[in-house]
Amino acid sequence: MTRDFDRIVAPGTTIETIVTGIQWAEGPVWVPQGDGYLLFSDPPANIVRRWSRKDGVTTFLSPSGAPDPDRTILSEPGANGLTLDAQGRLLIANSGGRSIDRVDLKTKRRTVLVDRYRGKRFNSPNDMAVARDGAIWFTDPPYGLKGENASPAAELSMNGVYRWRESGAGGGEAVLVEGALTRPNGLALSPDERRLYVSVSDAADPRVMAYDLGPDGTPRASRVLVSAKAWHEQGKPGLPDGMKVARDGTLVCSMPGGIMFLTPEGEPIGLIETPTPAANAAFGEGGRALYVTNNDRVLRIALRPGWQG
Prior knowledge:
By secondary structure, the chain is mainly beta. The chain contains two helices and 26 strands. The chain has one domain (3-302): Neuraminidase (6 Propeller), CATH 2.120.10.
C-alpha cells in the first residue's frame, strides 16, 4: 500500500458486508435518486437486487435476463453488468437474453437495444461503459453459455468488444472494435475518452489491455497495461474482471487478490484484499463509498471525501 492509497482509503478503514447469500454477485451500479440505492445482479439466479440503508435488500427484477431460460444452453440466464445512461435509465448486459437492454427504473419497461452482430446472436454480453455521446461499449465473452466457446448455441466465432450507438430512427448497429481477445470482460473509458481499458479474464494470460482511440472511436494502438499472471500463479483468488475509472483517471479493477487501484499507466496504488474473487465494483454516495461484488456477498468500503478531485 502506498501513501497515494492513504489519500483514497483511510488507514484502518473496515470493510462492511452489506449483503450475503448471493449465488454470484455482479454488476453493481449506484442510483443517485432520493437517498440513493445500489442495484446489483446475480446472473445464475436470474435476479437483479436492490439495496439501501433504509430498505435493506429487495428484489428489483426477476427474471433479470432471459424470461424463460433453457438451462441446457445457459449457465448464466440473468443480467450481468449494469450501468446508467445519461438520462438515468438502467442499462443491462443481458447474459441470458444475449442482448444489451434498457430499462425504465420507474416502470421497469424493458427495451432491447441490440442483440446481434451482422445477423448473428451475441454470446453473453458481460459489461458496459457509456460514452458522453451515448455510445455503449460492451464485451461479449462466452461465460453465459454452457460449454462456452464449444456451445452449440454460439453463433459468433469471436468473443468481441463492441460499440453501439442509437440512430435517429431508434435503431443502431453494433461495431466490432476488438475481436482477438480470448475472454474480454470488464471495460471502462478514460475521463477524456481517448483510451479504452479492457480486462481479459483468461487464466492462461490474465491482463488489462489499453487501447488508444482515434477521434472516430477506432482503436489506433493497443498494449498490455498490466499483467496479472504472477498474482494468479501465486494462488490469489480471482482474475481481472470488472473495472471503473475515477474522475482523476485512477483505475479500480478486479484482480487476483481483490480490488486493485491503479494509475492510468497501470502502476499499482493499493489493493483491497478479499478472501474470494471480486467480480466488480462501483462508486456510490457521491464518491464517498466503493461497493464491491465479492462472490456470494456485497461489500462497502468508505472512501475519503473528495479524493477523486
